[in-house]
Amino acid sequence: MGDEPVNVKEYQILAKQALPKMYYDYFAGGSEDQHTLRENVAAFQRITLRPRILVDVSKIDMSTTILGYKTSAPIMIAPTGMHKLAHPEGEVLTAKAAAACDVIMGLSFMPTCTIEEVASSCNAIRFFQLYVFKRREISALMVKRAEANGFKAILLTVDTPKVGRREADIKNKMIAPQLKNFDMSTEVDDSGGSKLEAFAARSFDPSLSWKDIAWLKSITKLPVLLKGVLTREDAVKAIEVGVEGIIVSNHGARQLDYVPATINALEEVVLAVQGRVPVLFDGGIRRGTDVFKALALGAQAVMVGRPVVFGLTTKGEYGARRVIEMLKDELELTMALSGCPTLSDITRNHVRMQSDNRHCRM
């Protein structure tokens, strides 16, 4: 393989060579048997495309709006933690890559750059991921800081009452760097393995429930999106409590193993929501064809996490930017070859899932 990757998967190969094993395993790994981790990618490969021919595709328009904010493509940078493990300048470079590509960045609740450093680095549209701590005042302060620094939405992560069993981190005795947004210096019992897991167990609030959505909405004017929805029941409940958006996500397969691949859960949630709020997608995107498939199944946009981190690892801001550019280029080509000059032309009829084949036989 040459020095310049030709697809986003090759950045992961280079990142594995460049990162210490502890850090690579942290970024790349999933929980327990890692079944869902493999399925997040493999499930896309079982979805085939149904292209249309003889359509004028001389002009392809991938632009869209997400929560009213214009973006060059339905591709966002997912919130992922601790980018300084990948590159010394961390999330600041990730934000600059987002700005250069004119896409929206999700900033992790646990970055290695401060909210203020990221906000002042460039003019990217940014959303802020939120975990709720047992000490609610910490989470409330983070929301206020994000709002004061121009972040446009809160992505409330709702699938982490406890941290999933990430066995690579346990074996490696994963040590997190100082998280500059809040104090992580208090000693925790990490004799069983991952210090990061011990910190989460001490800090995250496992009592978080539906009633707390009202609390969050009461302390911010920003729209609140729920990140971690996988079922129609929770999608309906989310609508009932008044959230402004839903992110179909299994946390990059880092939480409960043997949940569905996110792409297999997407349509169930979309059908339950019935267009009342935007549905975003997170998990397993590695190709422009994957983006196309998620859009065809009803997602308004997709989030990309690990590939951006691996691009950042190997080539800094340029690498993170190239990952997004590659996906945009591949999506544009897929749209052209499928007969879809605009995003609105992409429909459910452009994809076939294995379940569709079963229904046809019946």
TrEMBL record:
Record's keyword annotation contains Plastid: no
Cellular localisation: Peroxisome
Active-site residues, record numbering mapped to chain: H251 (proton acceptor)
Enzyme kind, highest EC tier: oxidoreductase
UniProt-listed InterPro entries: Aldolase_TIM, Alpha-hydoxy_acid_DH_FMN, FMN-dep_DH, FMN_HAD, FMN_hydac_DH_AS
Enzyme Commission number(s) from the entry: 1.1.3.15
Cofactor(s) the record lists: FMN
Positions of FMN binding: 79-81, 108, 129, 157, 227, 249, 282-286, 305-306
Alphabetic keyword roster: Flavoprotein, FMN, Oxidoreductase, Peroxisome
Domain FMN hydroxy acid dehydrogenase, chain residue ranges per copy: 1-356
Superkingdom, natural source: Eukaryota
Main location: other
Reactions the enzyme catalyzes: a (2S)-2-hydroxycarboxylate + O2 = a 2-oxocarboxylate + H2O2; 2-hydroxyoctanoate + O2 = 2-oxooctanoate + H2O2; 2-hydroxyhexanoate + O2 = 2-oxohexanoate + H2O2
Gene Ontology MF terms in the entry: (S)-2-hydroxy-acid oxidase activity; FMN binding
Transmembrane segments: none
One Gene Ontology cellular component: peroxisome
SUPFAM superfamilies linked to this entry: FMN-linked oxidoreductases
Residues that hold glyoxylate according to the record: Y26, Y131, R166, H251, R254
One of the protein's GO biological processes: defense response to bacterium
PROSITE patterns named among the record's database cross-references: FMN_HYDROXY_ACID_DH_1, FMN_HYDROXY_ACID_DH_2
PANTHER family in alphabetical order: PEROXISOMAL (S)-2-HYDROXYACID OXIDASE GLO3, S -2-HYDROXY-ACID OXIDASE-RELATED
Record-stated family: Belongs to the FMN-dependent alpha-hydroxy acid dehydrogenase family.
Listed name of the protein: (S)-2-hydroxy-acid oxidase
Gene source species: Artemisia annua
Lineage of producing organism: Eukaryota, Viridiplantae, Streptophyta, Embryophyta, Tracheophyta
